[in-house]
Input
Amino acid sequence: MIQETPPVVLAALIAASAALGSAIFAFIAALINSRVARKNAILSAQIAQRTKRADFRQAWIDKLRESLVKTHIGFASPDGLAKDDAEHALRTLLLVNRNDPDYNRLRDCIFKMTNKKSLSAEEIDKIGREMIEVSQDLLKREWNVVKSEINKFEEDARSIK
Output
């Protein structure tokens, strides 16, 4: 014969089952929460790293732009390069990676302009235009690198699993 379970025991079993279910749910929620927190921490670190790198690159671009402008202005002087202008020309070459695709074009323009007394006015104008073009190409490419760093934030977010 099956005995009926007293209502107090049934209530205790139901309460214990509910408590166990709540504990299991809380444990699962804690696991999910910790995983999400870890993903967010990794993503925040990646975004901070990319942002800092983009800031450094932008500061470098600004310095390069200023140096290119001062170098070009120095070449405009009919008296030739002054000491400051020569320093700007050298600084410009030092700011650009020699493996950059435009490094040789820029270097050639600067070297030709440092010896401009032997050049005609047309040659000087042509070299000046070439220097502006190479400067624009260089700055545009570097700006695209900064933009690509910034645009990778979404890619970083998607890559974290």
